[in-house]
Design a protein that fits this description.
Barwin-like endoglucanases, 23 strands, Dimethylsulfoxide Reductase, domain 2, alpha/beta, globular, 3 domains, Rossmann fold, about 20% strand
Length: about 525
């Protein structure tokens, strides 16, 4: 039987944004929700004002801590120990949902035994979170049957990111907070329509709808639909492509709407890798730092210059309507891809984006009932298999696809890189409220730049005093991969021994410093923990 983490591998929220206001407990872990997902944070605050209790687990005192009943200020990279410790307390105090566990899960006793060493005292030593706070959080979450867990890349961007997600899934199963309204496991997507891209098959091991390329019956279905012969071999992830290019195994690359020179870890290695390509194409709306390295740049349209659909973090498919004409020679992505495909010998013929989603529904029944006519009225959440289906606000109401889901033992492992006598600080990275991702759009907006256009590093007052660093002073931060000069921002938002750099600023890129070690399964880099020195 598959674990719950594998079953909801699409990364979408199991529940809807609307349901947040009906939750009794909101557990936020590895998510700076107020700054990275402010619309969802506002829903959480509304729930708080209605009486919901909020738990925040984060290495930084993020803005949502202001509303938290419990703040678990853990050391970066110790999420598994914390979650296992919370589960240990829930079990020892008998707060778990025995009825749900007996009816819908398996492997409970084996998993329970794996938690015996994760006592609150032991967890305190690993995470830095006091045993009393671990117990308090466990009682809050364990006593609720209307609790939702929310996480983002603070959970996934680790070498143990897959295990982090499994630990979260274990906790939801332990309390039965899944398969009902105002509960669930809710990963918040980090970029607009990244959910839609995943749904549509922009993954190396699946066709549209998360249908595996290595299953013969699935491959045959798509061969028939598309009229071509298809490979059964999964491709490389984006994070595997860069090392492959550096090694000469990939000779050409085509990047659409991504800026890995700023957003990938170990940025110097990324730049060197892209320069080694024989042929490099970038398709984007601006001449990004990555596009500047390309042999060919294809100007594409932004969201307001094309028709189509976006799918958001709660699995809701919504219409996007063209509002303005694109500038210059910019063309929409679909027309560019159709022309290139035709020149390569495979004729794609779609007379509109509507034709694409119609085909999408034919090969993936979960969206078979979603049509443009229906989307004219409002967005629809998949699964929506038929044209009279209302869509699905929350998943697993009728149970799981494989009847029972398995608890998976998750051992605690240290980050790939830890501090030593030379590199004495832990760097963690993330976003701030005003800039977005690599800044290719927001950094062209003068009012935003005036307010938040300077790169900075957050450093705790104790560390600043010890190192004689003044607020606003330029300091040097170095890792084993490179160094940046950046302004110091002295703040108690970060704990002593930890520093934080937002990812948005190419001129002092956090990702010059970050570690490109990957999760063995998901192939996601460890952006959230690396060892650095100051000065």
């Amino acid at each position: 039987m598959a674990g719950l983490a594998a079953i909801f591998g699409s990364g979408a929220m199991t529940n809807s944004i609307r349901e947040i206001e009906g939750m009794d407990i909101i557990f936020i872990i590895g998510s700076n929700t107020k700054e990275s997902h402010p619309v969802i944070a506002n829903r959480m605050i509304k729930a708080f004002r209605k009486g919901a209790k909020i738990i925040v687990a984060d290495p930084r005192r993020v803005p949502m801590v202001r509303f938290a009943e419990s703040f678990l200020n853990l050391k970066p990279g110790t999420d598994i120990a914390l979650i296992n410790g919370i589960a240990n307390v829930i079990i020892s105090e008998g707060l778990y949902n025995k009825e749900f566990i007996d009816a819908k899960t398996e492997g409970f006793e084996e998993w329970k035994n794996s938690l015996k060493d994760f006592t609150p005292e032991h967890v305190e030593k690993i995470t830095g979170v006091s045993k009393d706070e671990v117990i308090k959080a466990a009682r809050l979450y364990g006593n609720s049957r209307n609790a939702g867990i929310f996480y983002t890349m603070g959970i996934t961007q680790h070498v143990c990111g897959t295990d982090n997600v499994s630990a979260v899934a274990n906790l939801a199963m332990l309390t039965g907070n899944i398969g009902r309204e105002s509960t669930g496991i809710n990963p918040l997507r980090g970029q607009n329509n990244v959910q839609g891209a995943s749904d549509a098959g922009c993954l190396p091991n699946t066709y549209p709808g998360y249908q595996r390329v290595d299953l013969p019956e699935i491959r045959e279905k798509f061969e028939k639909a598309w009229g071509v012969s298809l490979s059964s071999n999964p491709g490389l992830t984006a994070t595997e492509m860069i090392p492959a290019a550096h090694a000469g195994k990939i000779k050409a690359m085509y990047i659409m709407g991504e800026n890995p020179v700023v957003t990938d870890p170990n940025a110097r290695h990324t730049i060197d890798s892209l320069k080694k390509l024989d042929f490099f194409v970038v398709q984007d709306i601006f001449l990004t730092e990555t596009a500047q390295l390309a042999d060919v740049v294809l100007p594409s349209t932004c969201f307001a210059e094309k028709d189509g659909t976006f799918s958001n973090t709660e699995r809701k498919v919504q219409r996007v309507r063209k509002a303005v004409e694109p500038p210059g020679e910019a063309r929409d992505d679909l027309s560019i891809l159709m022309e290139i495909s035709g020149r390569l010998g495979y004729k794609m013929e779609y007379n509109s984006p509507e034709a694409v989603i119609r085909e999408f529904g034919q090969v993936w029944p979960a969206i078979g009932g979603i049509t443009y006519d229906r989307l004219d009225k409002s967005g629809i959440q998949w699964p929506c298999p038929t044209k009279d289906h209302p869509g699905t606000e929350y998943l697993y109401k009728d149970g799981f696809a494989k009847d029972r889901v398995r608890f998976n033992a998750v051992p605690y492992t240290s980050p790939a890189e830890t501090t030593d006598k030379e590199y004495t600080f832990v760097l963690t990275t993330g976003r701030n409220l005003f800039q977005y991702h690599s800044g290719s759009m927001t950094r062209r907006v003068e009012p935003i730049e005036k307010h938040a256009g300077v790169a900075y590093v957050e450093i705790n007052p104790e560390d600043a005093k010890r190192l004689n660093i003044k607020n606003g002073e330029n300091i040097k931060i170095s890792s084993r991969r490179g160094a940046v000069e950046i302004k110091a921002r002295i703040t108690s938002t970060v704990s002593a021994g930890t520093i934080f750099i937002p990812m948005h600023y190419a001129e002092a890129s956090a990702n010059i410093l970050t570690n490109d070690a990957l999760d063995a399964r998901a192939k996601i880099p460890e952006f959230k923990v690396c060892a650095v020195k100051i000065g």
